[in-house]
Amino acid sequence: MVVDDINFTLKDGRAATLRSPREEDIEGTRAYLIKSSGETHFLLRYPEECKNFTYELEKTIFNDMNSSANGAMLVCEVEGKIAGTCTITRDRWIKTRHRANIAVALLSEYWGQGIGSKMLEALIDIADKMQYVEQIELEYIEGNSRARALYEKFGFRIVGVRPKAYRLKEGTYLNEYIMIKELQREGK
Question: Which CATH number fits domain 6-182: 3.40.50.11540, 3.30.1300.20, 3.40.630.30, 3.30.70.360?
Answer without folding.
Answer: 3.40.630.30
